[in-house]
Description:
Structural class: alpha+beta
Distance between the termini: 94 Å
Strand content: 25-35%
Number of strands: 19
Largest sheet: 10 strands, mixed
Shape: globular
Helix content: 25-40%
Radius of gyration: 29 Å
Number of helices: 7
Amino acid sequence: xxxxxxxxxxxxxxxxxxxxxxxxxxxxxxxxxxxxxxxxxxxxxxxxxxxxxxxxxxxxxxxxxxxxxxxxxxxxxxxxxxxxxxxxxxxxxxxxxxxxxxxxxxxxxxxxxxxxxxxxxxxxxxxxxxxxxxxxxxxxxxxxxxxxxxxxxxxxxxxxxxxxxxxxxxxxxxxxxxxxxxxxxxxxxxxxxxxxxxxxxxxxxxxxxxxxxxxxxxxxxxxxxxxxxxxxxxxxxxxxxxxxxxxxxxxxxxxxxxxxxxxxxxxxxxxxxxxxxxxxxxxxxxxxxxxxxxxxxxxxxxxxxxxxxxxxxxxxxxxxxxxxxxxxxxxxxxxxxxxxxxxxxxxxxxxxxxxxxxxxx
Length: 361
């Protein structure tokens, strides 16, 4: 009798472990399409990669590994219709080299729990997009939002541009911590005002403009939104002429982690004096205006060195103007010529982020 009880206890424990493992292992890769049907959803699923496991088979007697493809379960969702498709992605191969076999998909029935979680993801994105649009209008209709009230700089005998210039506002919107914090707070207040009690109850969640990762009830889903959805960014345009390409425009990626909203400047989409911030960061030494140098140096520490005078053997060492903030670039040297310096800007950790050419202090 005791033996049978022990057997039954072990069987129950094994059943519990298997059930728990199957629930916790329900993980999916996903894609939110722009407006796809089932045919397009299938093509999207085929673009994913299959998981591959390789090991050396000693029975073959060769050094070549034997590889097996593990099927992936892909979810594709259409936010316009709420439709969620499930595709199992696999390789039509029984082993061999990594590149062997053709990717194929077949439909599978999505569990109710996974479908509800995917629907919650679509709902959350819809809510975030609505809040972003509202705050965007608020920023457009409140020019004073970007006035220089957060920082007080000493009066300078000379300045290349004042605080109300478009360049000054764009730089402030990018690097002034209080301005960014105010925008972030505006988003949070708007979100909590509209969605005080969100229907979605995630165990963990992360939403960015184009990527997401969530989990609830033993189901995990991570994936991306369609590329055309990445245009859903918070945008502030400081250009005075709407007919020309925006010379001073700052774009923010709105993120939410575990229901807490945060902002990050999108450097590819943002422009300072006509230059993408990503180009300033990665494009080597770029010639820029005195106004941009002055405004950046209010928020970012810079080291400034004069470029050596061409052809002068006796004066080849560059003049070092030091390192700090609030240097004022001058448009001409003492002899009437333009003296050019290399300005290197640093982040709060002391890492160089920009290298620019422009007038010396």
